[in-house]
Every structure is written in structure tokens, then in C-alpha cells.
Amino acid sequence: MSNSEQTLSIIKPDAVERNLIEEIKNIFISNNFNIFKEKKIQISKAEAEEFYKVHQSKPFYNDLCEYLSSGPIYVMILEKENAVIENRKLMGSTNPKEAEEGTIRKKYGLSIDKNSVHGSDSVDNAIIEIDFFFK
Ligand code: CMP
Fold first, then answer.
1. Is the residue at 49 inside a domain?
2. How many domains is the chain built from?
């Protein structure tokens, strides 16, 4: 039985600004992810607040939402067997300083805020996040 799964990936403003969209897409493709849907958009702060509402009690919530809405982002539905966990492995730790060699955040991340990519953290959240951007 196939475990093919979908997850949501976002190339964040810091990486879009540095023209890294194609480079990061190629990392997903060479790691056997299928990019099922993709688009470049800019969201409002209110939309970012909705997207990141699981973090609303955190001290970094306001900065996080300011940041995600500060410039264009590139959102993708990625498909692969066990896509959620495979994407998280490929992204590396949230803090680029702690990210493993060979991961996207190790290679491109600037800081814990400007960590270049977001990926859904569970299958349930992937469904919610895909719906948010591609309904
Ligand atoms: P992301 O995977 O997009 O999910 C929430 C984001 O909050 C996270 O990546 C980080 O960029 C950002 N963030 C800022 N500060 C922290 C923190 N202390 N712990 C976790 N995430 C943080």
C-alpha cells in the first residue's frame, strides 16, 4: 500500500528575496518530492495571524506574522510517501544554527525567524494548511 501524502511548504520572504525559489524547488525535486501545486503570493498580516494561530500565545507571534506578510512567499503542495516527516527532515531544525548538514535551513537559513522555509508539522496540520492556501 502506498503512503503517498501531501504537505505544505512555504519558501519564506528571506529566501524569495534572495532569489532562491528555483534552487530550493530543485532540492525538493531531487529528493523525489512531486510539486503538485505552487504559487507566489503575498499575504496580509491578518492572513498570517490566521495561518500561524497555533502560535498566538508565543512571545514571537507578532514578529512572526509581521515577517511572513512582509514580502512575497512561494507556497507549494509537496507529495511523497511520508511527505510531512520527509519534508521536516529535509528542512532541518527550526533554528538554522542547530540544523544538520545537508538541510535547507542549514544551507540558507539566516536566523530562527528568517529560516527560509516552513513545513507542516503533522498530517492533520498539512490538511489545514493546504486548505488555507489552495482552497
Ligand atoms: P515555522 O516552521 O514557520 O513555524 C513557526 C515559526 O516561528 C518558526 O518556523 C520560526 O521561524 C519562528 N520562530 C521564532 N522564534 C521561535 C522560537 N523561539 N521557537 C520556535 N519558532 C520560532
1. no
2. 1
pLDDT, one tens digit per residue, over 46-84 is: 999 999 999 999 999 999 999 999 999 999 999 999 999
Which protein residue's CA is at the shortest distance from atom 11 of ligand 1?
113
Q: Is residue 60 part of a domain?
A: no
Q: Is 118 a catalytic residue?
A: yes
Half-sphere exposure of 23 (CA within 13 A, CB side): 13
Catalytic member of 118, 126, 129, 133: 118
Domain with residue 87: its CATH number is 3.30.70.141
Enumerate residues lining ligand 1, CB below 6 A: 55, 60, 64, 94, 112-113, 115, 118
Q: How many CB atoms lie within 10 A of CB 116?
A: 26
If pLDDT is split at 50, 70 and 90, which confidence band does 3 have? confident
Domain assignment of residue 91, given as a range = 4-43+71-133
Residue written as cell 528542512?
Answer: 91
CA 59 – ligand 1 centroid, Å: 10
Instruction: Give the closest residue (by CA) to ligand 1 atom 13.
Output: 113
Distance CA 89, CA 123 (A): 15
pTM, 2 dp: 0.97
